[in-house]
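Researcher: I'd like a candidate sequence for this fold, 105 residues long. If you have to choose between options at a position, lean toward the conservative one.
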């Protein structure tokens, strides 16, 4: 099983779970879900595949140089707290805005 197949399988499983959990009767919701599934299939899968292939290609380069994983990805190790803090702030602000919109409506 290749990396592409694993990415395809995981995204397809996510879409099936999403379809099962959100099966509204309204036609508008079905159209929105169809557009979202189309977007995920076209853009998100290709984005994830590019990331996976980048790491696979970098692994070949790293092994050819004889470097270990900590030395090769040192900048990711240093930036990981910043990345995690940024993601948590983004999701926190998004959640706060959505809760505020619920109170208004």
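Model: Candidate sequence:
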């Amino acid at each position: 099983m290749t990396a592409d197949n694993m990415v395809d399988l995981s995204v397809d499983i996510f879409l099936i779970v999403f379809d099962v959990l959100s099966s509204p009767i309204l036609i508008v919701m079905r159209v929105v879900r169809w557009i979202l599934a189309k977007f995920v299939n076209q853009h998100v899968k290709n984005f994830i595949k590019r990331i996976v292939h980048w790491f696979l290609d970098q692994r070949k380069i790293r092994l050819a140089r004889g470097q270990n994983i900590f030395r090769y990805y040192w900048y990711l190790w240093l930036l990981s707290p910043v990345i995690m803090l940024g993601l948590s702030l983004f999701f926190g602000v998004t959640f706060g805005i959505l809760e505020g919109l619920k109170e208004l409506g």
